[in-house]
Amino acid sequence: MMKANNLKGSDGLMRGLAFAIGIICSLISSVAFSEDATFGSSIVKVSPPKGFCELDKTNKADVALFESASNYVKVGGFSAIALYPDCHEFEEWRKSKAFLLTKVVFARYVKHIDRPAPQFTTEACEYLRKGLSDEIKARISEAVTEFSKGNSSLTNTMSLGVLDEVKGTVCYSGQLGRGKIANVGDVTFVYLSAGTYVGDQAISISQWTNYVDESSIPEALANLKAIYSHFAAANGKTN
């Protein structure tokens, strides 16, 4: 989340990688739980968006999936706060362990913000507009290769760039991706992320949905904006 002329530093690399690596996580059926999370001086309030479900902390399968997701997002320098699956897909997952695509994840950037949060968010958006460096692309490629050794693989992605921004408050960006899922086949998906903050804590709100046609992207963006609006209100943000 740094300006383009600062990207040679390790912080710039990890901040860029953190946003890009999320497209890979979209192929993992993950879950999480609702609760207020305290980081430093910031309390981040999260809850399931409309149409998304909260999971049972006493269910070993749920806990194992959340831990798996938590370990994975660490690759990008993030720590998972919560992840909520679409209620309908979750119901099917409960019955058959079917692939679970539609979901929302809340995560925090693990490093301390070293500048005012509005500036930090604006610089992140500027960086996303510049695109990914060759070094970051190489690291993502390595992660994709490692991930594709399992039963699922990420076969192609296309950057949608920055889709909208409220300067100094929230930046919306995205990817269009295609993956191959065991026992499912090809899946085309929209991955969108809202980069924002609460107090001195950088936050990413990410959403994965199915791609059907050209209307899928604006619909996904409208839904993510609604999720952000609810999150902002719960955390005392005015925009």
List low-pLDDT spans.
1-34
Strand order of the largest sheet: 3-4-8-7-6-5
Strand proportion, as a percent range, falls in: 25-35%
How would you spell out the order of helices and strands?
HEEHEHEHHEEEEH
Structural class category: alpha+beta
How many E-type strands?
A: 8
Average pLDDT works out at 76
Distance between the termini: 20 Å
Q: Any idea what the shape is?
A: globular
How many helical stretches?
6
The helix content is 25-40%
Largest sheet: 6 strands, antiparallel
Radius of gyration: 17 Å
Could you characterize the architecture of this molecule?
With 239 residues, the protein is α+β, with helices and mostly antiparallel strands. 36% of the residues lie in helices and 30% in strands. It has 6 helices and 8 strands. It has helices at 10-25, 60-73, 87-96, 117-130, 134-147, 216-234; strands spanning 37-39, 42-44, 78-85, 103-109, 152-166, 170-181, 185-198, 201-210. The strands form 2 sheets. The protein has a 6-stranded antiparallel sheet with strand order 3-4-8-7-6-5, sandwiched between helices. Strands 1-2 form a two-stranded antiparallel ribbon. Strand 5 and strand 6 (170-181) form a beta hairpin. Helix 1 (10-25) runs parallel beside helix 5 (134-147). The longest helix is centred in the last third of the chain and has 19 residues, at 216-234. It is globular and about 45 Å long. It starts with 9 loop residues before the first helix and ends in a 5-residue tail after the last helix.
